[in-house]
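Researcher: Here's my situation. A collaborator sent me these components and asked whether they could plausibly form a single complex. I don't have experimental data yet, so a predicted model of the whole assembly would be a useful starting point for our discussion.
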Amino acid sequence: MQTLIPNEKHRILIVDDEVIITTQLQDFLKSMDYQVVGMANNGNEAVKMAREHKPDIILMDVVMPGSDLDGITAAGMIREELDIPVVFLTAYGGEKILERAKGVEPYGFVIKPFQGDELKAAIEVALYRKHAESQLKASEEQYRSVVDTATEAIITIDIHMKIIFWNRAAVVMYGYSQDEAAGKHFTFLISERFHRTIINEMDRMVLTEESDFVGKTTETIAIRKDGSEFPMEFSLASWIIRDEIFFTIIARNITERKKIESMKSDFVSLVSHQLKTPVAGMLGCIDNMLKGLTGQLSSQQIEYLRVMQDISKRNYRIISDLLNISRIERGVISLNIKPANLDEIVELAVREHKENIESKGLKLNIMKANGHISVMADQDKMVEALNNVIHNAFKFTDKGSISIVVKKTREYGTVEVHDTGRGIPAQQRASIFQRKQIFDGGPSTHGGCGLGLYIAHQFMQLQKGNILVKLNTDKGTTFIFEIPLGN
Amino acid sequence: MAKGTVLIVEDETVFRLIYRGVLENEGFQVIEAEDGKKGWELAKSKTPDLILLDLILPGLTGYEVLEKIRHHEETKKIPVVVFSVLGESKDIDKAIDLGANYYRTKGIDSPTNIVGIIEDLIDGKKLDLE
């Protein structure tokens, strides 16, 4: 037989009250290439020798009459103090003894008389088990030290969302000790107004094995033992052990980050104000002049003013686009979804372009819905998304018309924007809603930075709507906006 | 005869110039205030037919002026159109909650678009804000 653990000779302590047996065993073990470090005749001696020699394994007789410490008691002491594996040797297979022996968790049991192979197998299995246990212990210790020193709260919950594990960072973060947290429902860490969302999502995850929580971080508001709240971000992983599902949650306090985000957001608003206001002012002045409010203009003056108007509008759009991109990418867009009238949204979006479209000689058809279509939308975002697409339609259509059709399906209010322009080349259709490198290959020849569709797409997604491009065989482009219906 | 008096409360000279131009051209009489405090005083003393109110103002903010207008017997029925540069719906909602009748984003559409709205408001026609 080959030894299972590649090592130098394993060191064995033999304990038996019969000298004949110890001597026999010694020869036997030596022949099997083990090293016998000692032979004890009673329990006390066994404990003493175990302390002294620290053997790899102890073969221990269970019944040693005349010894004040029997094998089982000695094995228990050794296990407790030295953590050395013990294999019991016994002539009696009595139930009572076996029961007692089990109590000290022996590494094996060999019934006398035994065969050499049996003994060797028992020794090797015990050594192997010990080795595996030490490795497991080491890995557990490593895991524990990671968990304990982590600055994130690490919490394990069962399928009923009851807390079964709670690390030190969690104690600091929420103010509950490990004992206080044990057995509590996970939602007791979350501000009450978010309970429904969390419970629903967990239920969905258990039922469908799909979840918005897994593989990404979720932000919520947590609550401490003292009742104070803080913004928290968590991610979640599920694992199964013996058919039972558990979830490990890693949570972090994001108060500082939120503070910085809000500062940045204020800054963006400020920049937006400071950059947009003068352009809007300039546009207003030009518009008044073009409307004749400052007196009659020569055709040349009108031409100059139109050029200034174009440039200013383009500037305004670029500022808007860049600010929107910045908000989207930092995730600081504020949404205000409420019932809105789709016809009105379309009207607001068209208003800016009407004049330009008509002065370019294009026909503008607007087909509104028959009756009021109430949608759940953030009106500004929806207007801006439509704006971007209508603006594109205007830019890329040289003759013909732009048609806007408002309709209603079972779930959505829809707006179709159709133009008779140059259309989108087939190879570009797949990527039109993607974020492009802003100045990739130099600025666009059409003005703007080519981000309009990306922003439109992002805004529609934020509102739980969608934007699609229809594949037309004939010339032109059709975009379809879908936005959830209101009540 | 003037179609009515409009008070413009706006700190940016350029917007006062633009809207004065648009409104005078339509036959309105225009008075101006360049900060919130002066705006509120003129609203009280002149009781204009309509107020164009910027939200971001030195002195008193547009929201504060609006609140005062709505809580003062002589001014509480005056229609108010607020300007929002940011065009953020939460700012607009706040203004509507405080009693603004209409909002206008200082954007790129023509300032003359405001004339019809102002005429309707002065004529007492209700505008549907939702």
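Model: Some features of this prediction you could bring to your collaborator: Residues 437-444 of chain A have pLDDT under 50 and may be disordered. Chain A has 14 helices and 17 strands.
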